Amino acid sequence: EPSTPTAGAARMAAMENVIVLVNRIQRACTVLGDHGGDGAAASLPALWEALPSVAVVGGQQSSGKSSVLESIVGRDFLPRGSGIVTRRPLVLQLHKTEVGEQEYAEFLHAPRRRFTDFALVRMEIEDETDRLTGRSKQISPVPIHLSIYSPNVVNLTLIDLPGLTKVATEGQPESIAQDIENMVRLYVEKPNCIILAISPANQDIATSDAIKLARDVDPTGERTFGVLTKLDLMDKGTDALDVCFYFTFFCEFELIKDLIMLNTCSSR
What we know:
Mean pLDDT: 79
Low-confidence stretches: 39-44, 253-257, 264-268
Structural class: alpha/beta
């Protein structure tokens, strides 16, 4: 049966309703202690793990993962710093509002507080992370739920996961690299999880931790999207087109179903 504008609009409306429903179920799961993995009901099948999701996976520090998320939102709101900055999963729920309405953010753990200053959103993420993990740079699988309401976003839920690392820093157990990988795998191994694999253009793509992990859990690339960042930080004398071609070739034939290239500006 041929598609019509009316039928297309109806399908889009139905999809929007599904996204809203999934958002509500995710929030309910967190309140009830069901966040998958090591949650309170780990011995039972987790409803959280049955829900569709989009997981953002990056390699070590400065892969451009935060810049990708902030580009999608159009706001600077994520913590910055050295070492492992993301130490708890951040479930980022975007809600599109009417044109002209003020942008604001809300946290599930602080339902009566509305944030219009996104610098305070960053501080709240840091404080809520420290509340469970302390200042010892430990990690926790318990997610932080952040909802952003804005006319400049689309209805979408993204899960920001801790960046993959190889070496423990001061105050972290030697097992931190494996602990983070295990946490990330809990999300990306799900067959209904879409993976955004972040790789910076100023590093060797063939050794990308994010792509390596994505290839491991999704060898056919049916649910993985490659995201190439930091094209503006490539070494002098290198050709951006060559890097993009190599990335596209590498992903198309070995891993990734599609390609998103994001040029994140530096302060240099």
